[in-house]
Design goal:
- By secondary structure, this protein is mainly alpha-helical.
- It is built from 14 helices and 7 strands.
- Strands 1-2-3 form a 3-stranded antiparallel sheet, covered by helices on one side. A two-stranded antiparallel sheet has the order 4-7.
- The longest helix is centred in the middle third of the chain and has 22 residues.
- It starts with 7 loop residues before the first strand and ends with a helix.
Length: 355
Amino acid sequence: MPRRGENIYKRKDGRWEARYIKEIALDGTKRYGSVYAKTYREVKAKQLVKINQQSENTKKCAETVGELMSEWLDSSKNRLKISSYRKYQAIVQNHISERLGKLPLKCVTAQIIAQFSDSLLAKHLSMETINQILMVLGMGFKYARERYQVTLPEIRFLKTSKASMRVFSPMEQQVLVKKLLDQNDIYSFGILLTLYTGLRIGEVCALRWEDVSANTIHIQRTMQRLKSDSEKTEIVILPPKTSSSDRIIPIPKILLSVIEQHRKPSGNVLLQENGNIVEPRLLQRKFTKIVAACGLEKANFHALRHTFATRCIEVGVDVKTLSELLGHADVKTTLNKYVHSSFELKQNSMDMLTM
């Protein structure tokens, strides 16, 4: 017989079953869990443990989106790379908390998330940036579901069209290389290194002469400017982006003499005349000025990496080898993101067809 108001029953198999509220959905629907024991006293004790656990979870559970995202960041800090943590922290502070921070979790609906996406579009943010913000919000929601069994809507990302990436044509590359060799300063050297090795801007800035042998370059660190806890930015040296990014790259013959002109016994490869390091932001600015001085179409520093990948494909480097040179975890990334076939390559491929 059930004990009135206690949700405790004696089953036909002789055991006692006690039910407890496991979850309450936003619409008020209750989901129950059960515990079992041989006696009423034992099952009652087990039921009280579960009820107390649920009460404890309810007390600890964040009440607003802002509190939730703060708790999620704290719980993730030791599992994330410092660069990822600070990036997510900035997204929460600058975008999520501003609009949703004071919203109670129980009031979050799919419609509110859609309105949030629209507000980000109204700020003229790029689709990629908006989807990054939604991704961070989604990670916070996932944490709440797993930690507290909170019912929250699924995040829907914006559909984006694949933008064409800037790649220097062979003629543009010739113009750029001539300018770099004529200028022959430390910034031109860094740009040449990237153009003929496919390094990321943080990797070339963090490169040390100890990493550069007579014929290879060992990539084992990267440089980034990150926001510190004091809200100021600082330069930090970090491990490579992924385990695959820690790699050894053969130096092409075209670079050997240039490297020897600049070689030093030790220290950073890219150093200014005053002894200060060349950081990514500075190298990007110098690159932009050089591209403009060449009369070429505007390009981001990352276009050098895209150009390197394209030239490799054009001269017959297999995709697996190229993937390893670029430091990608799998070949699919190389194919989908970095290899951009030129018109000349397409024409040559078509001309190989025979009757």
